Amino acid sequence: MALPELASNPARFLGEEDASACGQWQNMVSDYRLATSEWMQKSDPALPSSQWSPEQQTLFANMVTVMSENASTMQQIALPTKNSIWIDFAALAATYRRAYVQAIPTYMPADNYLDSAATELMVAIDEACQATGV
Questions:
Q1: Do 47 and 56 meet the contact criterion of CB atoms below 8 Å apart?
Q2: At 14, is the secondary structure helix, strand, or coil?
Q3: In whole angstroms, what is the distance from residue 97 CA to residue 41 CA?
Q4: Tell me: the pLDDT tens digits for 41-73?
Q5: Who's near 126: CB < 8 A, 6+ residues apart?
Q6: What CA–CA distance (Å, rounded) separates 88 from 90?
Q7: What is the number of alpha carbons within 13 Å of residue 31 lying toward its C-beta?
Q8: How far is residue 95's CA from residue 114's CA, in Å, rounded to a whole number?
Q9: Are 133 and 115 in contact (CB under 8 A)?
C-alpha cells in the first residue's frame, strides 16, 4: 500500500523505468479489447442470466477464460515492477475481474459494476502509461 503522506505530495506513479512493463500492459489492454469485442457488442448487461438466450450464454461462458486470464496477466505484469501503487491497482482490478467471473453463472445487472470497476482500473493504468510518453 502507498503511504498516506504521499497524498500531500502528488506525483506520477509511473516513470521511464516502467516503460517495458507499460508496453506489456498496453498490449494486454489491446488484446483484451479484441478478445471481448463480440461480447461487448452482443451482450446486454441489463439482462440477468436467467433471461439469456443460448447465444448470450455462450458469449458469457467464453468470457470466463478470457477474463480469468486477464486478471492473472494484470498481476503478472505489475508484480515485477516493484511499483507498489501499480501492484495495488492491478491487484484490485484483478479482484474485481475475478469477482465478475464468479458472478457470471448467476449474473444480475448489478454485477456489471464489478466488470466496470475492473475495466476502469485497467484503463487508468493504461492511460497513466500513456501519460509517461512510453
A1: yes
A2: coil
A3: 19
A4: 999 999 999 999 999 999 999 999 999 999 999
A5: 25, 26, 29
A6: 5
A7: 13
A8: 9
A9: no
